[in-house]
């Protein structure tokens, strides 16, 4: 970073009065902060790394207060960097800003194979952190495990489950699968059936693998209840919204069975709950029905959620979740993107497979191509249907696919850590949609939120009487669109929560 860039960044922080996913501010007027380990770990463990700025005081509205001694500060920060495992190599920049000296320390991301970076004095379990919004949170056992599993090439779909004997696998389905493999490779038929099952990762040492159970067991959820799908239809825009009769869900179902059975039942659930538009061709008079979401896109999203979800012991209590809302369909899969894959690379780069054995089985049993075509198919199907681009989000401990149904205006933005993914802004579109503020009102509110504002301040500015109405009509839609951003995204219900216009300052 050049000194001029540091001054520009400091000015932006002052105007915005907020830290960010990649940015942390420390005063350092009276000495070096004694505990930087959490932030050093959090920045090192995210792909973008991060920047520490010394010399701005958060408690004084981010006013420039300067640092006590540039040389000593650099020395002591470096000492803390050397207490990390692996050691952190910070890059320092000095600049004069508003009459005082300030300093930045750029913290590079460490390679995925070396994560998690943690403070040696606390150990890996207590000393590893992850950056969430502008906070550094302790890594969960699962997050630490996911790095270990990737580094050691552990595939949880191949772990054995001794409670299930081979006799509990559905023989007709298993025989059909083996016959398909024999047809593909004629010499494969020379093997004995137990040998075939071993080579195809259905069993290990005569004991069924998790992949074998999820594809062939008569009732996999008898031993893994949450390796299932929960599907709900919400009569509103968020979980918790209720209908006219105070119903929380218009449809609610737990979907069980093998991978292929769950896919078919989940697609059926979605089809049953979709709105269907009837279109009459004015020239021919022919009738054509158009579903709210293209079924092929839904099917691919459900397949991806089941095949690529995390199946480790850490996620045994978490099902795949399908949520229908008035404006969108969300499909949540436990476990974030595996390995080096990023959201930007989806459908472009060849990913590492979290569950290779399960994926190969699903190719035969569900028609999944296993050719990295699922994401492109979802995008193409949505485009062909004239619907907004799908949104893919790599959240903490889960991956989410969101399909919008066309009752929104939508525009894509960068998905870098410093930018919140824009999704949609409601438009007036028939009796089921709520009336939203006019464009002038939205722009006025965004200008007002050039500085972070509380719920009360926003309600007063918009001239509404209740905080609930202000949140529902103004703030929540703008949050969904990415036009407003939380100062405390990891604590959405915090009393200290404020909102500011994205990109302002």
Please state the structural category.
alpha+beta
What's the alpha carbon Rg, rounded to whole Å?
26 Å
Mean pLDDT: 87
Which geometry do the CA atoms define? globular
Q: In the residues, how many domains can be counted?
A: 4
Portion of residues in helices? 25-40%
- Any idea of the CATH topology of the largest domain? Heat Shock Protein 90
Protein name: AAA family ATPase
InterPro entries: Fic-like_C, RecG_C_sf, Schlafen_AlbA_2_dom, Schlafen_AlbA_2_dom_sf
Pfam family, one: HATPase_c_4
Task: Please give a structural write-up.
- It comes from Blautia parvula.
- This is AAA family ATPase.
- This protein has 505 residues and is α+β, with helices and mostly antiparallel strands.
- The chain has four domains: 137 residues, Methyltransferase, Cobalt-precorrin-4 Transmethylase, Domain 2, CATH 3.30.950.30; 49 residues, no CATH class; 198 residues, Heat Shock Protein 90 (2-Layer Sandwich), CATH 3.30.565; 61 residues, Arc Repressor Mutant, subunit A (Orthogonal Bundle), CATH 1.10.10.
- It contains 15 helices and 24 strands.
- It has a six-stranded mixed β-sheet with strand order 14-13-17-18-20-19, covered by helices on one side. A four-stranded mixed β-sheet has the order 1-2-7-6, with helices on both faces. The chain has a two-stranded antiparallel sheet with strand order 3-4.
- A hairpin with a 2-residue loop joins strand 11 and strand 12.
- Helix 8 packs parallel to helix 11 and helix 14 crosses helix 15.
- The chain is globular and about 80 Å long.
- The protein starts with a helix and ends with a strand.
């Amino acid at each position: 970073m050049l000194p001029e860039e540091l001054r520009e960044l400091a000015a932006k922080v002052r105007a915005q009065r907020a830290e960010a996913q990649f940015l942390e501010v420390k005063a350092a007027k009276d000495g070096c902060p004694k505990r930087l380990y959490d932030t050093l770990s959090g920045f090192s463990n995210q792909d973008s790394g991060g920047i520490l700025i010394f010399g701005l005081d958060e408690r004084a509205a981010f006013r420039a207060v300067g640092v006590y001694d540039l040389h000593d500060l650099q020395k002591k920060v470096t000492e803390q960097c050397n207490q990390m495992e692996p050691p952190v190599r910070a890059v320092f920049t000095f600049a004069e800003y508003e009459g005082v000296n300030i300093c930045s320390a750029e913290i590079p991301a460490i390679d995925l194979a070396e994560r998690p970076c943690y403070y040696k004095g606390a150990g890996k379990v207590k000393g590893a952190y992850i950056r969430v919004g502008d906070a550094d949170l302790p890594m969960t056992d699962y997050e630490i495990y996911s790095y270990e599993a990737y580094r050691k090439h552990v595939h949880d779909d191949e772990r054995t489950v001794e409670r299930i004997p081979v006799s509990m696998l559905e023989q007709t389905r298993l025989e059909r699968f083996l016959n398909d493999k024999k047809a593909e490779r004629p010499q494969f038929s020379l093997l004995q059936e137990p040998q075939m099952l071993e080579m195809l990762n259905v069993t290990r040492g005569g004991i069924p693998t998790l992949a074998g159970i999820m594809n062939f067991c008569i009732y996999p959820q008898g031993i893994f209840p949450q390796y299932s799908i929960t599907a709900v239809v919400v009569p509103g825009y968020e979980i918790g919204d209720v209908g006219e009769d105070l119903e929380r869900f218009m449809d609610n179902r737990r979907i069980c069975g093998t991978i292929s059975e769950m896919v078919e039942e989940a697609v059926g659930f979605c089809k049953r709950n979709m709105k269907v538009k009837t279109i009459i061709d004015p020239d021919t008079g022919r009738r054509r029905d158009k579903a709210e979401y293209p079924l092929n896109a839904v099917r691919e999203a459900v397949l991806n959620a089941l095949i690529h979800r995390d199946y480790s012991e850490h996620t045994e209590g978490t099902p795949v979740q399908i949520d229908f809302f008035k404006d969108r369909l969300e499909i949540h899969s436990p476990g974030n993107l595996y390995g080096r894959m990023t959201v930007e690379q989806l459908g472009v780069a060849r990913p590492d497979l979290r569950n290779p054995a399960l994926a190969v089985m699903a190719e035969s049993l569900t028609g999944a191509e296993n050719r990295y075509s699922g994401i492109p198919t979802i995008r193409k199907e949505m485009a062909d249907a004239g619907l907004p681009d799908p949104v893919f989000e790599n959240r903490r401990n889960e991956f989410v696919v969101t399909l919008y149904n066309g009752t929104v205006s939508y525009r894509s933005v960068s998905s870098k850590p410093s930018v919140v993914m824009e999704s949609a802004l409601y438009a007036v579109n028939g009796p089921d949609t709520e009336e939203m503020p006019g464009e002038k009102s939205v722009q006025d509110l965004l200008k007002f939120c050039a500085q972070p504002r509380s719920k009360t301040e926003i309600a007063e500015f918009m001239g509404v009487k209740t905080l609930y109405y202000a949140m529902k009509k103004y703030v929540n839609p703008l949050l969904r669109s990415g036009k407003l951003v939380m100062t405390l995204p990891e604590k959405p219900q915090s009393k200290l929560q404020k909102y500011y216009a994205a990109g302002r300052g």
